[in-house]
Each structure stands twice: as C-alpha cells, then as structure tokens.
Specification:
Length: 163
C-alpha cells in the first residue's frame, strides 16, 4: 500500500502508529462527520470543520478535545447521536507544504478516527481547558452567550491512509 516512497521529516515515531500519532498531535482542526438530526436532511451525512487539541502543548494524549456550542448544527447532531468520524489531514504538516503537494495527493497522509463524541466529565474539564486554550488562545474570547462546553472523542476505530 506504500505506492510512493518519501522521507517524512519532523514526524513522531516511525511507522504507521508514529504517523497517526503525529497527525493527532499536530493538527489544530479536523473534519467531523455526523448523521444529521434535523429538518429536511435528517439522517443524511453532515460535516463541519472544528478546532481540536489532543492535550496541552507539552502533554499530547492522542484523545481529541473540542470546544463547542449547541448552536452549531454538528453539535446538535452529536447530542442526539454521538457516533462520528474525525478526519485529520496532513495539510498542516511540513511534508505536503514544503514539497508543494496538494493535501489530497495520496502522499499526504490522512487519519480518520471514529467513535463516540461525549461531553467532557467535570473531573476532566480543567485538562480540556488547558488542551484547547494552550493551542487556541483566541477561543477564550469567544462570546459567552454561545454556551460553550467541551467534548472529546472516545475512539473506537482508527484508519490511516498513508501511501
């Protein structure tokens, strides 16, 4: 399955696990896909890009955390059906950018995590704050009236496309 051969610079541990861990650690956003729970598109696939963090800068966990609002249709969907997939592209990585390769080129890895999106329990909220605010300081200034809260993905399946 490794059709192309290239040296990945700046990645984590070698191999597939290292590549997956690198993508989870270094992506600051991802594409979350849900099943729509509203209106004329009920039951259909629906997706949105969301900011994420897998931990504070010095403590990567591999568990994606999100700072979300119930005003977002994706979150509405997740509150009714927590099953989702999260795709993390290598678009933010140095390899594709440095080599001027389109993120959809097979040589740019993609990681898809599937599982349940759950509200972060009270005992983990402080960690979730550190995770999100250390990587995305601007979110502290987002309007409080949007009723922001933290979610995380309990990962059930991992699919790495790394050619």
């Amino acid at each position: 399955s490794r059709m192309f051969s290239y040296r990945r610079e700046g990645g984590g541990a070698p191999g597939r696990a290292g590549t997956a861990r690198f993508l989870a650690r270094h992506n600051t956003w991802g594409f979350v896909a849900t099943r729509a729970a509203r209106g004329k598109i009920q039951g259909m696939p629906y997706g949105n890009c969301l900011l994420l963090s897998d931990g504070p800068i010095n403590n990567s966990t591999g568990i994606p955390f999100f700072y979300v609002t119930p005003k977002d249709n994706t979150v509405t969907d997740l509150l009714k059906n927590p099953m989702a997939s999260l795709t993390l592209p290598e678009a933010d990585g140095n390899f594709c950018r440095k080599n001027v390769i389109d993120p959809e080129d097979p040589r740019c890895a993609r990681l898809t995590l599937t599982g349940q999106m759950v509200t972060v329990p009270p005992e983990e909220v402080e960690f979730a704050k550190q995770a999100m605010f250390s990587r995305h300081p601007v979110v502290r200034k987002w309007p409080r009236s949007y009723e922001w809260f933290f979610m995380k993905m309990n990962i059930e399946h991992i699919w790495l496309q790394s050619w």
